[in-house]
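Re: [ENG-882] Designed sequences occasionally contain unexpected residues at chain ends

Forwarding the minimal case from QA. Structure tokens:
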């Protein structure tokens, strides 16, 4: 389980005197850690013996915490 900060964006013109604060969103992703690099972590949604499904790379600077999940069996 990775808790991380994601960027936000606005897609329209805004008047400077009318803009509101736009902090990043806190996101949570669960997956199999397939690349544990110092600058980023890559997780996969599914993991087989020879394949992975649905990879996501998260920059290390955006990661707030990593929690190792285990099964009860």
């Amino acid at each position: 389980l990775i808790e991380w900060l994601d960027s936000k964006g606005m897609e329209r013109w805004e008047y400077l005197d009318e803009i509101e604060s736009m902090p990043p969103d806190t996101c949570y992703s669960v997956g199999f850690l397939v690349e544990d690099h110092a600058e980023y972590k890559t997780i996969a949604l599914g993991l087989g013996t020879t394949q992975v499904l649905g990879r996501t790379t998260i920059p290390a600077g955006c990661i707030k915490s990593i929690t190792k999940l285990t099964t009860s069996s």
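QA comment: On inspection the terminal residues look reasonable. The CA atoms of residues 40 and 60 lie 4 Å apart. Proposing we downgrade this to a documentation issue.
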